[in-house]
Write a structure and sequence with these properties.
single chain, 133 residues, alpha/beta, Rossmann fold, 3-stranded parallel β-sheet, 4 helices, 3 strands, flat
Length: 133
């Protein structure tokens, strides 16, 4: 019986580590499959129901507390104005804070954010001081 070379030891270690990782991936996959099968069973038997929200009923209701929406933007000048305006129209409640982030070297996006906000005090513009190249 001969001695093993360092490459043979590395190959053995690699095989064992791959087997170890493979077993844990398999355990994770079986766990996910069990959750999916359980949800499907509850859905088919009618025990899991998805509640529906009536848009007309929820339209004018106040928020039950402060809410924040975060929007990150990089070179989004063509759409961010409409996104901000729509978010403000969809949530007219005063408890909403809309944080829109952009970079200092993207002035077009910053201008579009300001146009979409229209001076609304619920909008907070967050400008990152390091630009993206």
């Amino acid at each position: 019986m001969g001695y093993w070379t360092p490459l043979e030891w590395l190959a053995l270690a690699e095989r064992e580590l791959l087997l170890f990782a493979g077993v844990f991936f398999l355990i994770g996959a079986v766990d996910e499959l069990a959750i999916d099968v359980g949800w499907l069973w509850l859905k088919l038997t009618g025990r899991a129901r998805t509640p529906r929200i009536d848009r007309g009923e929820a339209q004018g209701r106040p928020l039950t507390g402060p809410a924040a929406v975060l929007i990150a933007a990089w070179q989004e000048s063509h759409i961010i104005e409409y996104t901000v305006a729509h978010a403000l129209a969809a949530w007219p409640q005063a408890e909403l804070r809309l944080y829109v982030g952009c970079y200092r070297n993207d002035p077009d996006t910053l201008e579009a954010i300001m146009r979409g906000a229209g001076g609304d005090p619920r909008v907070r513009v967050v400008i990152h001081d390091a630009g993206i190249m």
